[in-house]
Predict the structure.
Amino acid sequence: MSADIIDGKAFALALRGRIADQVTAFAAAAGRPPGLAVVLVGDDPASAVYVRSKGKAVKEAGMEGFEHRLPATVSQDDLLALVDALNADVNVDGILVQLPLPSHIDERAVTTRIDPDKDVDGFHPVNAGRLATGLEGFVPCTPLGCVMLLRDRLGDLTGLDAVVIGRSNIVGKPMAQLLIRESCTVTVAHSRTKDLSSIVCRADIVVAAVGRPEMIRGEWIKPGATVIDVGINRTEDGLVGDVDFAGAASVAGAITPVPGGVGPMTIAVLLRNTLLSAHRRAQIPYDRDAL
Ligand code: NDP
């Protein structure tokens, strides 16, 4: 193996430490800690695990967590009423509704009901538009975490050839927008892309967000490229990413492992977005460089 391993776990831990310091300063200035409301509908086990780990991280950062658990049978109107109440609550800086929602609820109706200025997940169309047009807003946590790792590894990304595989609203599209913002030359590939290997092999940066175990082959990777593997796939051999890790690590310059790469960044950036929201809402300046 020649590639350096990008340690997302260590990076996320350090970021969470810097956030906790700023939370203390914010609470002293504002007279209250930043607040994050998390809404969980039903009892999907994976969602329950995510909500628990978010709650723990919020507490460890010194923020206030407001957890709302609703039964799977809750009506859409009642869920929207809760979102309205959270939008109006002055102690809530960020609102996150854990997806997926039960099939009788229209996810789009719920995510668009969240006040865009409390939408710390960055999923609201207003925030997608802000990102696309270069306005201040909230950027989805996972792709922003990927860019942080890339900048930490490579410094200035200007002019680099980047390929994003996946075009979801949550990962692929915002990832492409962020890389454009970093002045990369960006190609977005998806399930209809022809000859994916010939596109991947030119890239200085490869971001894989597909959800197919080890689909991106090591022999496609350009020597020295930086590989960011967003995929989380549960297989008989445990968790694996979308990239053939052993093959890619023998040619890449650097690569994120799964687990321990992109995954830990998502919660750290969620805390960052919540802290940012608290500062914006209270009109208290913050140390942007530390975040
Ligand atoms: P989606 O299923 O929403 O999107 C997958 C994308 O991959 C689609 O754009 C799809 O194309 C594309 N795709 C599917 N098959 C192929 C193929 N054969 N060749 C090229 N492209 C293909 O997934 P998400 O974006 O939500 O998540 C992607 C992965 O990232 C998953 O493994 C998920 O678990 C993981 N993830 C990890 C997070 C973390 O914290 N680390 C957070 C979020 C996601 P098309 O649009 O044409 O269908």
